Amino acid sequence: MPEVEPPDKPQVFFNPACSKCRSLQEILEEKGIEADYVEYLDSPPTRADLDRLMALLGITDPREMMRPAEEAWSRLGLDNASASELLEAITREPVLLQRPILVHGDRAVIARPPDRVLELLASTQTG
Question: What is 16-125's CATH number, 1.10.3210.10, 3.40.630.30, 3.40.30.10, 3.30.1490.270?
Answer without folding.
Answer: 3.40.30.10
